[in-house]
Design goal:
Blueprint lengths: L6 E6 L2 E6 H14 L3 H17 L1 H6 L9 H20 L8 H12 L3 H19 L7 H25 L2
Length: 166
């Protein structure tokens, strides 16, 4: 009797409403809620909101924004590529493709959302600006930093590709 097609007729001031059992139940609850004292209504409303936001259905509808397990390594790699994009030409290296082109390839492969894309670009720019603020000419320290960044970049790439197959 309480299936989807069950209905209840309610007569009110000459109008006849054909309501399902679920609608009648909701109508009864809503009329009860509206007659509550203000403080009790506020508590009820707060409880309803908490239950609605913590329900499994609400979690299922929210998009997954979890980062992949190698996110921090790729962000660091972006920063390394930004630093090398500044240091390599400063010290006379003419890399082809450029480090910026390598970064664009990384963005195409990994930046599935605009927010993630911005994070990668921000880290690339951070690496670039960090060295452009300090070095105007190539020095031995700049060459050492460049060698260390190349080694770190190779390590990051090897780690991510071997561990995660990316």
């Amino acid at each position: 009797m309480c299936g989807k097609h069950s209905s209840i007729n309610i007569t009110s001031n000459i109008r006849v409403f054909n309501l399902s059992v679920n609608d009648a139940f909701l109508l009864r609850i809503s009329s009860t809620v509206l007659m509550m004292p203000p403080m009790r209504f506020a508590i009820f409303l707060l409880l309803a909101v908490c239950l609605a936001t913590n329900s499994p259905a609400s979690h299922a509808q929210t998009p997954q924004t979890e980062e992949p397990p190698y996110e921090q390594q790729l962000l660091r790699l972006s920063e390394v590529m930004g630093a090398l994009h500044f240091l390599r030409p400063l010290c006379g290296s003419n890399d082809a493709p450029s480090w910026r082109q390598n970064m664009e390839a990384l963005l195409l492969a990994e930046a599935r959302t605009e927010n993630r894309r911005r994070k990668f670009i921000e880290r690339f720019n951070q690496g670039y600006r960090g060295f452009s603020a300090v070095y105007r000419v190539c020095t031995s320290t700049a060459r050492t930093a460049m060698e260390q960044y190349i080694a770190e970049g190779e390590t990051l790439i090897t780690t991510v590709t071997s561990r995660y197959g990316r």
